[in-house]
Please model this.
Amino acid sequence: MASKTLCYIFSTMLFLLQLHVSAGQTVVKSAYWFSGSGFPASSIDSSLFTHLFCAFADLNPTTYQVTISSSNSALFSTFTRTVQQKNPSVKTLLSIGGGNANASTIASMASQASSRKSFIDSSIINLARSKNFHGLALDWDYYGGFNYHFQAISKSLDWINVMAYKFYGPSWSPKEAGPPAALYSITASQISVDTGIKAWIQAVSPKKVLGGHLPPLPPPPPPAAALPLLGVPFFGFAWHLVNANNHGLFAPANGAAITSDGTIAYNKIKDFIAQTSATTVFNSTIVTNYCYSGTTWIGYDDTQSISTKVTYAKGKGLLGFFAWQLAQDPNSVLSKIGI
Ligand SMILES: *[C@@H]1O[C@H](CO)[C@@H](O)[C@H](O)[C@H]1NC(C)=O
Ligand SMILES: *[C@@H]1O[C@H](CO)[C@@H](O)[C@H](O)[C@H]1NC(C)=O
Model:
């Protein structure tokens, strides 16, 4: 299962904010804006969010300083001012790294105090403060399989983004059209949102003290644990089915459809359904949407899946949720859920 557990990205937050959550509410409603998407920051309905991530800043492999590419420089400098026009209280975070960043460079930066200082000084002082961001997010994909230093991460950071999606995709699961981000699984060997969230909660919980024959020791004070934000995808994956008549979950497939790696934005999925009169299914047992037409099969999150996950996040006492990414839901159909 090693390759599947790699699908959890823990994007680590480095900024300082006091946020309190109690059962039945979430306090962070956030989404990524990705500059490469072409979706203008001025089009974001920031009134729907408490926090927005501006992605991505880069890490220089030699100096370990955080930099912003020249093409992003002006966009990032004005990001906070732009999104605060519709919501003056929205908080912004500069996101460093991302899926295309070199994870070895981040690991080598993190391994030594001197390079960590370059990273911290350049990111906090030179970039975040001078460009009006309220905080920083380190998007380190994927730093350690499932051998995360849960307790250390939890103590150092304000929250943790759990990338609870990309469980199945045509690039690494070409022969099986699986649900990319199901809340629950059908069999114990399948990965799901719930298994990942439970693993995180268990890993950061204070260890129980066993008393034996002695009087039990008083419990240790709970660590200031970073609470997880549940990641939800504003995209799905399209597979090419082997047989158009075999179109259930985990149907035999042979690779990606529609795009080279099968990634397809939520609004494009809705276009596909309208144009092909695709059959749509919501499976409430595992909480996933999928649709199919001919030999094309798409697994994704529609409104039912996202709203069930929002309810789940509240029930588990999570801090909130984050979405990747805004350009894929330009009409805010998914963004409006749970707000
Ligand atoms: C990633 O970074 C490491 C260490 O900085 C370097 O050796 C490697 O060549 C880089 N890989 C890519 C694809 O740039
Ligand atoms: C969801 O899919 C699984 C696997 O195909 C199936 O066993 C289950 O009955 C489905 N649930 C619903 C509500 O259709």
